[in-house]
Design a protein that fits this description.
The chain has two domains: 136 residues, no CATH class; 201 residues, Rossmann fold. Helices cover 36% and strands 25% of the residues. It contains eleven helices and 16 strands. Helix 7 packs parallel to helix 8.
């Protein structure tokens, strides 16, 4: 067995001194350390995101934003804001597509990882960097993109027991960590439809995602603009733990090696939609990533790329399949949008 990391030892000391810690704290501290330590993306890292799969993804995000901007009357002083921009790949592809239509916004990156921020600065030296939303510009419309951002925010879990609902916490088991029901009663936090759930049932919530989403919606209503949220998740609140860990592209036990693995949870898009509605923003979706990309023309873009680069046809087909197929990212990943109510309705959301 590997020796516990510095973070693991610190968490063990905390648990030894004060008792078990909430799952949310365990996830927050683990991910803060993990993302500060290096670049986790790509074939040599722990996972790969849609912008790294193909340029088509970022290009269609850019076209989606450019179309909205054109139909909104080409407002001035627009700001492109990306939450968790990774290596800056999505921004590069999206901004290139926007420029073809005359949209050249300022670039703002919301990023707390020093390692990833350095990568983003190399690609976008003109970008302004932010730790949060507090200092984002307020003098024009915001064009917000958050791709695989909400899934890494800390989730709270509660679990049904024979004595009622309890917060799920992380305890120490020798040199390991283990989740178990805590002492704190949580019956008041349970939605009615889950009140009679069997012992062992787990419910999740992500207050951090709700707060950020609500603030984005408020800013859009105040300044104009649109926001696009793309992540893996579900459309209605449901039970079950979705906390998972990935290392070297393989799923592993999330309660091992904190700070050395990527911890994520499925995004509750019902909660994200409610956060936007609470600020009176227009909500579109959620729809599936595959349906959204097809509505925006990924089939045609793939065909064009294969015509331009026939030697890369197999690579383009593989990327198209990965982004849109129900067996890959097409169904699991969802897309939801906010717009200011005085902005046009965005494309890609049939029936919304």
């Amino acid at each position: 067995m590997l020796a516990p990391s510095g973070l693991a030892q610190r968490l063990m000391r905390t648990i030894e001194a004060t008792g078990p810690i909430p799952v949310a704290q365990y996830m927050a501290e683990s991910n803060a350390h993990y993302y500060a330590s290096g670049d986790p993306l790509g074939a040599d890292g722990d996972f790969i995101t849609a912008p790294e799969v193909s340029q088509m993804f970022g290009e269609l995000v850019g076209l989606w934003l450019a179309d909205l901007w054109l139909r909104a009357g080409k407002p001035e002083h627009c700001h492109y804001v990306e939450f968790g921009p990774g290596r800056g790949t999505l921004a590069s592809d999206a901004l290139r597509a926007m420029r073809k239509f005359g949209l050249v916004p300022d670039i703002h990156c919301v990023e707390t990882s020093p390692a990833l921020r350095a990568k983003q600065k190399d690609v976008h030296p003109q970008a302004v960097f932010h730790d949060g939303m507090e200092n984002l510009p307020d003098n024009g419309p915001l064009l917000v993109v958050a791709n695989e951002f909400f899934d890494a925010l800390p989730i709270h879990q509660i679990i049904a027991t024979h004595s009622g609902w309890r917060e799920r916490v992380v305890a120490r088991d020798g040199q390991k960590f283990m989740p178990l029901p805590g002492a704190r009663p949580m019956d008041g936090a349970v939605p009615k439809k889950f009140a009679q759930s069997q012992p062992g049932t787990i419910l999740e919530s992500c207050p951090a995602a709700m707060a950020i989403a609500a603030e984005i919606a408020r800013r859009l209503q105040q300044q104009g603009g649109a926001a696009l949220f793309i992540d893996y998740g579900y459309t209605e609140t449901r039970s079950g733990s979705t906390l998972q860990a990935v290392a070297a592209h393989e799923k592993i036990d999330p309660f091992t090696r904190p700070g050395q693995i990527d911890l994520t949870a499925h995004v509750n898009f019902e909660e994200i939609a409610q956060a936007g509605k609470g600020q009176s923003a227009r909500i579109m979706g959620p729809t599936t990533q595959g349906a959204w990309l097809r509505a925006l023309g990924i089939d045609q873009r793939a065909a064009a790329l294969k015509t331009q680069h026939p030697d890369a046809a197999d690579e383009v087909d593989a990327a198209h399949h990965r982004l849109t197929s129900p067996e890959e990212m097409g169904e699991l990943f969802k897309v939801l949008a906010y717009t200011a109510t005085d902005w046009p309705k965005p494309e890609g959301f049939a029936g919304s």
